[in-house]
Each structure stands twice: as C-alpha cells, then as structure tokens.
Amino acid sequence: MKDSHFSSEPRRASHTTVLRDPIVIKPTNTRSSPPRHSQGQRIIIQITVTSLFIMLLAVTLLAATTSGQAETGSGNVFNSVSHLFDSRNDNSTLLAQQAATATAVTQDGFDGGNQSYAGVNGGPVLDGTGNHFFQGQCTYWAAFRFHQIYKVWVPWLGNAWEWLGQAQRYGWKVSAQPTVGAILVLQPDVQGAGAYGHVAIVEKINTDHTVYISQYNWQGGFGQLSNWNFSYPDYPRVAFISLP
Questions:
Q1: Cβ contact 205:167 at 8 Å
Q2: What CA–CA distance (Å, rounded) separates 34 from 21?
C-alpha cells in the first residue's frame, strides 16, 4: 500500500534563467594620454623648427639691409629674396657667354672694331689714336706698323681676309708682288691662317719667293709680336696692299 503523501515520480528541480545584456559602466575619472613620438620624429621636429627660425632670421637681416633703399620695389624683402633664386641672375650662364666671346675675338684675323669684350685682355696698347682695330689682333699690329712706316692709317674696318676687298674699294694698290712695308693678306686656311684670315707687314723680301714679315697673334699667342716667312706666288689667296 502506497503512502498517499508521496508521489511515485521523482521530484524535478525548478530552475529559472533570465538572459539580458551585460551592463558596462564606463569610468568617469580616466583621461586619454597623447601619443608619444619616437626619437626620430622628435629629431625631425627639432630640425624643422630650427630651419624655420634660421629662415626668419635671414629674412629679417635682409629686410634691414634694404631698408635704406627707395620704395621702388627693388627694396622689397620678398623681391630681394626671390632674386636670390632667379635663374636670370645666374653668373654661370654669363661666364659661359664671356668665355665663348673671348674665344671668338682672340682667334687670329677676327676684328670687331676697337672695343672691349668681357673676359678678354686686349693686349699691349700701341701709340696712335687713329688705330680703330681690335687691340692685340693681327689687324691692330698691321695698322700700327703701316702707320709707323708711312704715317697713314688704314681707313677701313673688317676681319683680316676682308682687307683685300676693302683696299680695292678705297682705291689702294693690290698686287701679287710684295714691296717692303706692304700689308700681307692671307685668305682663310692659307699657310696656317684661321677662318678669319691673317694680315702682317712685309719687313724684307727673300730670294726664295718668301717674305719676312712682322705680325701679331701668330707665334706666342694673342697680342704677341713675332716674325715669320710666308710664300707669296699664290694670288689672290696671298696678296699685298700698298698706298695708291
């Protein structure tokens, strides 16, 4: 006989589970710390700050040096600074141009007239204000020496090879035969002459169909006096100019 106070089935435990989102409480007293720079970044920052300080100092000094100039724009600080980086003021370009000019005007036979060229030493100055050829050139010596002998200045201008045609235009005597004191004219590339030709003065006539001459800018270099022998039976490549 079963006891009426007990059930024949096992008693089951009753469990209740409540699922809900966790509550996160953020701290209220914390502060975010700034990112820390590495040593390399700190060095870069220091260099940048130093560079800015130096540039500011340079601009200040430049402004002080230009403060006395008239206010025409040339004394403006920004203009002055920009000129430092202006390629048009690049001296290297100017020096190259001067070097090219010096090479051109010192080539034997060239004559641009009695003037000066940047970077060119004109050579010795000879007496006589009537010499309007380029100082130190063969044309300069020929005009001087001819005047020294005949007291007459060469009236024309031009490079050495042009003297033959110039003499004909002025009515001077042009010949294939030399005379003492005459002007020897070599055309370009004749007996060692350059692209501008060569002129000299006949000092003596030799018996072997050569003439002994005095000249500038042949042996010894630009503006140097020297003597040489040139053969002459080669007209008009070799010609002689004398007074009419």
A1: no
A2: 33
Show Cβ contacts of residue 210 under 8 Å, excluding neighbours closer than 6 positions: 229, 230, 231, 232
Longest Cα separation, the chain: 177
**Nearest by Cα to 141 from 208, 33, 25, 220:** 220
Any idea which residue has 């270099």 for tokens? 221
The answer to whether the CB of 128 falls within 8 A of the CB of 140 is no
Rounded Cα distance, 162 and 139, in Å:
11
How far is it, in rounded angstroms, from Cα 85 to Cα 177? 62
The 8-class DSSP code of residue 73 comes to: T
pLDDT in 10s for each residue of the chain, 244 residues: 445 444 445 555 445 445 555 555 555 554 555 556 567 777 887 788 787 878 877 776 776 555 544 444 444 434 433 443 344 445 556 666 667 777 777 889 999 887 777 777 777 788 767 899 998 999 999 999 999 999 999 999 999 999 999 999 999 999 999 999 999 999 999 999 999 999 999 999 999 999 999 999 998 888 899 999 999 999 999 999 999 9
Burial 200-212 (b: 16+ CB within 10 A, else e): bbbeeeeeeebbe
Token match 């000094």: residue?
A: 61
User: How many angstroms separate the CA atoms of 114 and 118, rounded?
Assistant: 14
Question: Which own/partner contact pairs does 61-67 have at CB distance under 8 Å and 24+ positions apart?
Answer: none
Report DSSP state, residue 160: G
Residue 174 in tokens: 């042009």
Residue of 107, 135, 101 whose CA lies nearest to 121: 135
Give the rounded distance of the alpha carbon of 93 from its chain centre: 3
